[in-house]
Amino acid sequence: MARIRDVMTKDPQILPASASLVEAARVMRDEDIGPVIVVENDSVVGIVTDRDIVVRGVADDRPPGSTTVGEVASGDLTTVSPDDPVDDAVRLMRERAVRRLPVVEGGKPVGIVALGDLAVERDPRSALADISAAEPNE
User: Each residue of 25-36: pLDDT tens digit?
Assistant: First the structure.
C-alpha cells in the first residue's frame, strides 16, 4: 500500500503568517509553485495559494505589500502524516473538497501532497496525471 511519503513533495515552501502577499508571490514565482504552507510559532496554521492571493487579496483591493499571508490563507486545515496511506489523502480531499494537504510529522511541515500527485500515483494515464507530470511552462 502506497504511503503519503511515496507521493508527497518534500521540503515544502514555508512562510510565517506575518509574511506579506508580495513575499509569498515571489516564493511562488521563484520556486514555480502554487501553494505555500503558513506557520506561526513553528506550527502549521494555514496554506496560501496563488488563487488565495488573487481572490482574497488583490480582488478585495488589499495592499499586497502590507497584507499578510495569515490574512488570506485557508486556515481550516486538514493535514496528513507521511506514514498515512494514500487512500486517506484521497478520502480527505474528497470530503473536504481540497486540492492540497500539508504533510506534518512531529508537528512540523515536511511535505505537501496535491491532487495531481495522487493522480500520478492512482491513475497515471489520466489527463490530470499527464499535466501534473509534465515539465512546467516557462
Answer: 999 999 999 899
- The Cα 34–Cα 49 span in angstroms is 5
Place of cell 481540497: 98
d(Cα 114, Cα 96) in Å, to the nearest integer?
13
Say how far apart CA 117 and CA 112 lie, in whole Å.
9
Q: What are phi and psi of 112, to 5 degrees?
A: -145, 140
Let me know: does 74 contact 80? Beta carbons within 8 Å: no
Reported as a single tens digit per residue, the pLDDT across 48-107 is 999 999 999 999 999 999 999 999 998 888 999 999 999 898 889 889 988 899 999 998
